[in-house]
Amino acid sequence: MHSFEALALLFKEKFEVAHFPAKPATLYDPNNYFLTIGGKRIRPVMCLMGNELFGEIIPDAFHLATAIELFHNFTLIHDDIMDKAPLRRGMQTVHEKYDSSTALLAGDVMLVRAYDYLNKIKTQYIHQVLHLFNKTAREVCEGQQQDMDFEKLDQVSMEEYLQMIELKTSVSLAASLQSGAILGGAGEGNQRHLYEFGRNLGIAFQVQDDYLDAFGDPEKFGKKVGGDIIANKKTFLMIQALETAPEDRKNELLQLMKDNPADKVARVLDIFIYCGIDKWAIDLKNKYTSIAHQHLEDIAVMDTRKGPLRQLAAYLLNREQ
């Protein structure tokens, strides 16, 4: 069994090859640039981990992992256009470095290239993999649309936000694990438990992300805290505060979101703490973490084979940045 770090290095070696032809350079250079920015590459490694949980990693798993990583980068390029984001991982986004039309086409061809790698898969499970891949791709788009819709609303319910997070983030983690397991010959029951492990892990990961943006240590977090508050983002914390705060505190919170005073972050955090949102968020993360681990325990393989997935969960959920 390989650790997450070992599989990440193995995937890096196989992924860092030329995925696109040289010409036209105006189309393919932006993608080559974007792929050099890097990232944690969690999803493709989870695919390999899902495969290895049930046996030796097969060559097709690397084709699938590559397709998953290219699809993820396609979504990032298009998300950056929609968000008008100037930076991605500290580097210029594609639409900023080139232009929006080029970024749009670059993202499109990145998606096409992902399907080229899926087409390399030769096992009997290709139809199951394609079905899951396409279902997940559709759900990620639905989640992104919901996220954009929320920007136009004054308030969003916890149920609506949770559904959006599942679609935009959790299902891609869950499907990465399950698709690897499909290639490993896992039965339907084991696939379902592994998918639910990934889905609940993804929700816990987002709770942690929302929490760190508000309460993280700036030196460890790597950026100034309160970015979500300044941007009036509907996060787990903000939604819970609006749903549970006393009327006077809720009105103050709504007014702060409209006025955007210089001390907005400090005052919103004060309301969060008054309402116990910091402790509530930790409890919520722990709840979904516990559900995820229970599904992992229910997978019918030797317990020792689950060690890398436990380590992955700890890596994702105990981070401070």
Question: Can you put this structure into words, describing what you see?
Answer:
Helix content is 73%, strand content 1%. With 321 residues, the chain is an all-alpha fold. It has a domain at 201-321: Farnesyl Diphosphate Synthase (Orthogonal Bundle). Strands 1-2 form a two-stranded antiparallel sheet. Strand 1 and strand 2 (91-92) form a beta hairpin. Helix 1 (4-15) packs across helix 3, helix 4 packs antiparallel against helix 8 (158-183) and helix 8 (158-183) packs across helix 9. It is globular and about 60 Å long. The model has no long low-confidence stretch (mean pLDDT 94).
* Tally of strands: 2
CATH superfamily (homologous) name of the domain at 201-321: Farnesyl Diphosphate Synthase
Quaternary form: single chain
The tally of helices reads 16
Helix content: over 70%
Q: What's the architecture of the domain at 201-321, going by CATH? A: Orthogonal Bundle
First CA to last CA: what distance? 27 Å
Identify the strand order in the major beta sheet. Answer: 1-2
The description of the largest β-sheet is: 2 strands, antiparallel
Q: What is the CATH C-level name of the domain at 201-321?
A: Mainly Alpha
* CATH topology-level name of the domain at 201-321: Farnesyl Diphosphate Synthase
Element order: H for helix, E for strand: HHHHEEHHHHHHHHHHHH
* Outline type: globular
Query: What integer is the average pLDDT?
Result: 94
Note poorly predicted spans. Answer: none
Structural class based on helices, strands and sheet pairing: mainly alpha
Could you tell me the strand content as a percent range? Answer: under 5%
Radius of gyration: 20 Å
